[in-house]
Write a structure and sequence with these properties.
about 0% strand, 1 helix, mainly alpha, elongated
Length: about 45
């Protein structure tokens, strides 16, 4: 029977954590860079 490759599993977990951390950082930065969108523009009603 094969032994589990713990180094591979650990590396996989570390890469996943790193990816999630990068995504979180991008999410935090994205709203700061783009101006907030306000819904002040009202579409004309069709009567």
């Amino acid at each position: 029977m094969l032994k589990p490759n713990y180094q591979f599993e650990k590396r996989k977990r570390e890469l996943e954590k790193k990816r999630q951390k990068a995504e979180k950082a991008l999410k935090k930065m994205a709203p700061a860079e783009t101006p907030p969108v306000t819904e002040t523009a009202v579409l004309p009603e069709k009567s």
